[in-house]
């Protein structure tokens, strides 16, 4: 998960072919939900 976040951060806007896709919105959505999941996992692991 962290590798994916790092990849999006470094290659933002890369790999989206065509004008039908807004890479900024899609990348921001993926980053948001991956970050939420990572924080939830850290809380779960550290507070058991």
- Principal-axis shape equals elongated
Q: What number of structural domains do the residues give?
A: 1
Cα distance spanning the termini: 22 Å
Q: Report on the biggest sheet.
A: none
Number of strands: 0
Your description of this structure?
The chain is an all-alpha fold. The protein has one domain. Helices cover 69% and strands 0% of the residues. It is built from 2 helices and no strands. The longest helix has 24 residues, at 23-46. It is elongated and about 45 Å long.
Topology:
Blueprint: H1 2-10, H2 23-46
Compact overview of the structure:
The protein is mostly helical. It is built from two helices and no strands.
Any descriptors?
48 residues; mainly alpha; elongated
